[in-house]
Amino acid sequence: MPAAIGQELVALLPRLRRFALVLCRSQPLADDLVQGACERALANADSWSPGTKFDAWMFRILRNYWIDHLRRMRTEGMAEDLSQQTQLIGDPGEGPILSRLALTDVQRAIDNLPQEQREVLLLVCAEDLSYRETAEILGVPIGTVMSRLARARKRLMELTAAA
Known about the structure:
This protein is globular. By secondary structure, the chain is mostly helical. It is built from seven helices and no strands. It folds into two domains: 1-84, Rna Polymerase Sigma Factor, Chain: A, CATH 1.10.1740; 92-162, Arc Repressor Mutant, subunit A. It has helices at residues 2-24, 27-43, 54-76, 94-111, 115-126, 131-138, 142-160.
């Protein structure tokens, strides 16, 4: 059964990595989370039912892996400093600088959202999952997804003065 999900898993890797970055805000840790989630998925490939949403199944595995990681880290403490991540490429033009500043403001605003709002925002707005799929991944009612998303959008507009 693992070979049956292999191609779908490879195609989903960029989306999984993006979700992992939202969860942990660290590129190296996001890579580790995606790798761990893929290992779990391959080891438990028999638990996935063909015909169901593969991406929702994988996002749930990744989120659960993240929660397990947080539980383990409570005793060890976090060692990653996001401000040390300087892999961004510079451009001498004014446009890219202004865009980068705006992007930085939006990223900062998203970073200031509570974790549950960031998760919903990414799954619905970036991953284009339905409210129902997001609710299933997060294990919450659809109404909770809708209210978290509304609060996240309102807070983003306030923080970025986009209203």
